[in-house]
Amino acid sequence: MTARVLFAGCRKLPEGSGDEHAVIRALTDAGVESRWAVWDDGDVDFTAADLVVLRATWDYSGRRDEFLAWCDSVPHLRNSAAVARWNTDKRYLLDLAEAGVPIVPTDLVEIGDTACWPDGEYVVKPVVGAGSLGARRFGPGDRDRAAEHLRDLHADGRAALVQPYQAHVDAHGETALVFIGGVYSHAFTKAAMLTGVHRDGTGVSGAEKLTAARPEPAHRRAAEEALDAAIGLLGVTRSDLLYARVDVVTGNDGAPLLLELELTEPYLGFAHADSAASSRFAAAVRAQLD
Q1: I need a surface site. Which of 193, 200, 203, 247 has the fewest CB within 10 A?
Q2: What region holds the ATP-grasp domain (predicted)?
Q3: Positive or negative, the Cα torsion across 232, 235, 238, 244?
Q4: Cα(176)–Cα(208) distance, rounded to whole angstroms?
Q5: Are strands 160-164 and 136-138 parallel, antiparallel or unpaired?
């Protein structure tokens, strides 16, 4: 009997960004039936699939509870509902820091609390949010505007993180290291998204620019260690994770720091990887079916 795999997208991107097209072809060549489906489409029976892969569910941030309830309802989901529950709230960064992972310094500002603003430039972002949505970069002397943004997030029912901006990102970007089935696959560089500070103090969000990369050894070690810490916290093995993307930056002191650990629906950058990366992902999908 042919295995059936569904790749979960959202209504704005029902077939993702196009990055997985080669993966679908590789699965077809291997005799695995695969197609895209919108995660909140009530006409799709996700329970009948042999595997459902979270890929482009990028509209969840405004209705996370609904999304997580759907995740709980899907019996064969990767990454799992438990992983999604932990990873879709950026408080997970504090869990990793407590486990000894060097992260970008992060202060959690719960709803109703006031922030302790860093010196220099800093970023204010919601604890639940996809990409740079809701993230703003502020300069010194812009605390009133930062406080206004924080109030807006709180009024919307969202706690926030405050992080000192790592200036190295402006010139060198972030390094995104991709793991497939727990094994390092490839990396790409993401140019700075919050590319400056307006005169009014709010961050300027630029278009995302991606290029293939060979990570520095220190960045690779940092990514491996962050992933190991995460599986320890989650009580899973590396092979339980169909995919992971670890975003590492160089901190202001020159040492690598974890910016994000994406285990739910990250862009995986197959377009910026070697030609075998899509086949590696297809093989990992087949291994999950086994």
Answers
A1: 200
A2: 93-290
A3: negative
A4: 13
A5: unpaired
- Closest residue by Cα to residue 281 from 67, 65, 78, 75: 78
- The class level of CATH for 92-263 reads alpha beta
Q: How far is CA 188 from CA 177, 179, 271, 279, in A?
A: 7, 12, 10, 18
> Domain boundaries in the chain?
4-80, 92-263
Question: 240 exposed, middle or buried (CB, 10 Å; 0-12, 13-18, 19+)?
Answer: middle
Could you count the other beta carbons within 10 Å of the beta carbon of residue 253?
8
Give the C-alpha separation, 228 to 219, whole Å: 14
Strands (E), 12-156: 33-38, 51-54, 77-78, 107-109, 122-126, 136-138
In 3D space, the residue among 13, 9, 57, 16 whose CA is nearest the CA of residue 37 turns out to be: 9
Q: How far is CA 223 from the centre of its chain?
A: 13
- The 10s digit of each residue's pLDDT in 155-193 is 999 999 999 999 999 988 999 999 999 999 999 999 876
In angstroms, rounded to a whole number, what is the distance separating the alpha carbons of residues 93 and 79?
A: 18
Write down the pTM of the prediction: 0.93
